[in-house]
Amino acid sequence: MSKFNVGDRVKILPGVAIPFVGLEGTVYGVQPHEGGITTMDRHIVVFDRREKRSFYSAELERVEKVK
Questions:
Q1: Residue 18 has pLDDT above 90, yes or no
Q2: Nearest residue to 16 (alpha-carbon basis) of 54, 62, 67, 45
Q3: What distance in Å separates the CA atoms of residue 38 and residue 3, rounded to the nearest whole number?
Q4: Domain boundaries, the chain
Q5: Rounded CA separation 66/57 (Å)
Q6: How high is the pLDDT of residue 17?
Q7: Three-state secondary structure call for residue 8
Q8: Cα–Cα dist 42/39, whole Å
Q9: Are 22 and 61 spatial neighbours (Cβ–Cβ below 8 Å)?
Q10: Helix (H, G, I), strand (E, B) or coil at 52
């Protein structure tokens, strides 16, 4: 089972996704890894400017909703 679900708010962590580090977005879609390795699941993230990019689970951190 994937670490993140559609609708989760996430932040891009430092790593290979350099232009996106620190940006927040919303998980738009999840593509589970064929071999069942959850850290290799791909997550389509949509940013506030409507741009969509794909990231591995390890590149994301959940952002808790402010109440």
A1: no
A2: 54
A3: 7
A4: 9-62
A5: 22
A6: 67
A7: coil
A8: 8
A9: no
A10: strand
Structure tokens at 49: 């400017």
Task: Tell me the two tokens of residue 47.
Answer: 């940013």
The DSSP 8-state label assigned to residue 66 in this structure reads P
Nearest to 55 by CA among 67, 46, 64, 63: 46
What pLDDT was estimated at residue 1? 65
Give the amino acid at 6: V
Is the model's pLDDT at 7 over the cut of 90?
yes
Q: pLDDT per residue over 29-62, tens digit each?
A: 999 888 888 888 999 999 988 899 999 988 999 9
> Using an 8 Å Cβ cutoff, are 58 and 43 in contact?
no
CB atoms within 10 A of CB 64: 6
Q: Which pTM was predicted?
A: 0.83
Q: Does the domain spanning 9-62 belong to CATH 2.30.30?
A: yes
Those residues whose C-beta lies under 8 Å from the C-beta of residue 50, and which sit 6 or more positions away, are none
